[in-house]
Write a structure and sequence with these properties.
Blueprint: H1 3-80, H2 89-113, E1 121-124, H3 125-143, E2 146-152, E3 159-162, H4 164-181, E4 185-195, E5 198-205, H5 212-215, H6 233-243, E6 247-253, E7 257-265
Parallel strand pairs: 2-4
Antiparallel strand pairs: 1-3, 4-5, 5-7, 6-7
Helix pairs in contact: 1-2, 3-4, 4-6
Magnesium ion is lined by residues 173, 176-177, 229, 233.
């Protein structure tokens, strides 16, 4: 073999080696893409299952609502004809308590699973929040707790495009969680401010806080640490904030308190 032929053979070999390492890199990229496609297919399948489950839950909740209203009616008739001194009255009260828990589960399920469209309007967040805080104050009285609500609101109106009813549900769920997190006495701090391109609403409490390992689960439907909880409160909160294309974040420290912050972009 001539020197020239050897040189040519060498260059062919080099090209072959370069191409084969290119091919190996292509194959690796393809493997990664195949893996991603498989993962996406699994996710699509899972979201199909979840949406079918959601529809079923909504149907069941809807079907339960009417008979439940009937039971509630008869239970309150029974309560009216059973005076407090009657030994059977405590059973009637237990039935009424159970019905009210079921009602809460059913209506939360309907809110969570229902397909919703926002009805947005330009709203002054300060006046809107004041009205919601009066509801929260009634809740505090009902729970017989020493909870003071502190406000940090702008002195001027602050307008944002929101669905005021749905976002009211968000605020109430956060406030009720805050009240429930406070054992007997504490503070809830609500602030509203304009922060560049977003309105920022913060609800902070001095309650018992959330364990680090629970933080990742709190927005998952049915996650609850409460005996009487449905675990749908924060799932609904997240759903409504997402519909507004907003953001929600949480910071919490056990025995210190919790801060939820919502950002609604202008
Ligand atoms: N402010 C808070 N302080 C401490 N823990 C909280 C707070 N907010 C939420 N959590 C935790 O997150 C969990 C989920 O909250 P979520 O509102 O979704 O359900 P829930 O309050 O348990 O039930 P429901 O809202 O139906 O009454 C709660 O059970 C609680 O453990
Ligand atoms: Mg809740």
């Amino acid at each position: 073999m001539s020197q020239e032929e050897i040189g040519e053979l060498k260059s062919v070999m080099e090209r072959f080696l370069a191409q084969s390492s290119e091919l190996i890199a292509y194959k690796e990229a393809l493997d990664i893409q195949a893996e991603q496609i498989k993962k996406m297919q699994e996710e699509i399948q899972q979201s199909r299952v979840l949406s079918a489950l959601g529809e079923m839950a909504a149907t069941v909740a809807h079907e339960i609502r009417n008979p439940l209203a009937g039971i509630a009616g008869y239970a309150s008739l029974l309560a009216r004809s059973t005076p407090p001194e009657d030994s059977r009255r405590k059973y009637v009260d237990k039935i009424i308590g159970g019905i009210s828990s079921l009602n809460k589960i059913v209506s939360n399920l309907l809110v969570y699973t229902r397909k919703t469209n926002l009805q947005k309007q330009s709203i002054d967040l300060v006046a809107w929040a004041e009205a919601i805080l009066s509801h929260a104050e009634i809740e505090i009285e009902k729970e017989k707790k020493q909870v003071r609500i502190e406000r940090d609101f702008p002195t001027e109106p602050l307008n944002a495009e929101i669905d005021s009813e749905k976002l009211q549900q968000v605020m109430l769920n956060l406030l009720i969680n805050a009240i429930q997190a406070i054992e007997t006495e504490g503070k809830i701090f609500v602030s509203i401010k304009s922060n560049g391109n977003a309105a920022e609403i913060t609800v902070a409490d001095t309650g018992k806080g959330i364990e680090q390992e629970h933080l990742k689960n709190i927005f998952t439907p049915f996650f609850t640490t409460k005996e009487q909880g449905t675990g749908l409160g924060l799932a609904i909160v997240k759903k409504i904030v997402d519909l507004h294309e907003g953001e929600i974040s949480v910071e919490s420290e056990p025995n210190k308190g919790t801060v939820f912050c919502i950002r609604i972009f202008f």
